Amino acid sequence: MPSLQKTSPPQDPVVCPTRHDDVAASGSALIGGPIGRRALLGAGQLTPVRVVVLVTIGMFALGMVQKLPCYNWAWFRGTTSQYTHACYSDIPHLFSGRGFADGLVPYFDRIGGDIPFLEYPVLTGLFMEVAAWLTPGGGDMTEREQAFWMANAGLLMVCAAVLAVCVARTHRRRPWDGLLVALAPAFALTATINWDLLAVALTAAALLMWSRGRPLGFGVLIGLATAAKFYPALLLVPVFLLCWRAGKWRECGTAVAGAAGAWLVVNLPVMLLAPEGWKQFYVFSTERNIDFGSVWLFISQTTGESIRPETANYYALFLMMLAVAGLAHLTFHAPRRPRLVQLAFLIVAAFVLTNKVYSPQYVLWLVPLAALARPRWRDFLVWQACEVMYFLGIWLYLAYTTSGNKQGLPTDGYQFTIVLHVLGTLFLCAVVVRDILVPDRDGVRRDGSDDPSGGVLDGAKDVFVLGRAAHPARHAAPAVEGPRVDWGVSRE
C-alpha cells in the first residue's frame, strides 16, 4: 500500500502566479508585468497577505458604490428600479420587515404575518441585532434603513477582511491565491445583499485552523459557522472521509465534537427560552417553495408542472446522498488522497446545485473554496463570468415580472442564465475532479507537495484505500516525488 511522506520544502518560499499561470502573467501587464526572479516576495510593508486584504477591502468598497442608486432612492421608491440597477439588498427591507425598526427581539418577539419569527439561524440573528443597536434612532424610516444598511456593511467589511487573511494564509506557500477571492466580480456584487459573509468568514477561519493542525479549533469555528448558515456543516463530510482514508480518527472525532459543542453553546439558550422562534429557520427551510435560481424552478417553468416543497426536499436529499456516495468513492479510489479543500468545494457545490433556491449571494460560499481547490485564473474567471451573468439575469427577470412584462428579461432569458450558472459550476467541479484523478494536473501538487493546507492529513499514510489505489502498478511512480520548482509559465 503506498504511503505519503512529507518532503522538504521547495526552494521557492512563495509561489508567484505570474510565473506559473499564463492568465495571471498576461493580466500582470497592467501593473508592470510578471514578477522577476530577484524580487523580494513579502519584503517590506506590503506583504502578500496585506496586499490581498487591501484589494479585498477595495473591491468591497466598489461593491458598495455599485449599490449607490438603491441607497439613494431605488430601495424606497418602488421595486422595479432596484432590479433594473441590479443593486437590490435584503438588508434595508428586513430592517422594518423583521421588526428591528420597532425594537423587537429576534426569536422572542413575534413579527406577525406569514413569517411569525426571524427566519435566520441564531448567530446571523445576533449579527443583525448588533447592527440594529448600531443604527441611530430618530429620523424617518428611509434614513434609518440607510443607516442600518451602512452598519451591516461595516460589519460585513470586517468579515471580508477576515476572509481575505484566512484564505491568503491557509496555504503558506500560496498567499497570492487570495487575490482570486479579492478580485472575484461576484464577491463585490453580492457581498452586501445578505449576511452570508459572516458564515463564509468563519468557514475560512476554520480551514485555516485545520491547515495548522488544530482540529478542535476547526470544529469550533465550523460549529459557529453552522450557527450562522447551514452549509458549513457539510465540510465535516470530507473531513470524515479523508480521516477514514488516513486513519486519523482521533482528529476527526475532535473536530466533530468541537463543531457540535460550539453549535450547542450558541443555539441552546434560544432553543430552550424561545423554541418557537428558534425553529423558524428550520421550518421555513423545509416548507418554502422552490425559488429563484434552482434547477427545480427551471424544471417547473419548462415543463409547466408545479413541484411541491415536499417533493423537492425528497429529491434534493436523494441527490445529496448520491453526491456523498460519489465523494466517498472518489476519496477511496483516487490514486492519491484528495486535498481537503477539493472535497469541500465539491460537497458545497453539490448542495448549491440541488438546493430549492439559489440566491445570488450563495456564490460567496464557493468563492474561497474554489480559490483554494483550483487556483487557476482561467478556470476561475470562466466560472465567475457565468455567475455574473446569473446575477444580472435574476434582477432583470424580477424587473420583467414586477413591471408587468414591460422591461427586463423574459422567462426564456432567465432560464438561460440559470443554465449558465449550473454549467459554470459543473465545469469547475469537473476540473477539480480531474485534478483528483490525475494528481499531476493539480498545480498545487506540482512541486511534490501532498496537501499543504491539510493539517494532520498532509503527508499522512493511507490506511484504507480501494480499487487501483490499493493495488498500484509496479511500474507506477511513487505517490510523492522529490521537490521540484517549475520556473516557467504553465501551459496547463
Automatic annotation (TrEMBL):
Subcellular location: Cell membrane
Record-annotated membrane-spanning stretches: 47-65, 147-168, 180-210, 216-243, 255-275, 312-334, 340-359, 380-398, 418-437
Keyword terms, alphabetized: Cell membrane, Membrane, Transferase, Transmembrane, Transmembrane helix
InterPro entries (alphabetical): GT87, UCP010361
Membrane topology of the entry: Multi-pass membrane protein
Family: Belongs to the glycosyltransferase 87 family.
Name the record gives this protein: Glycosyltransferase family 87 protein
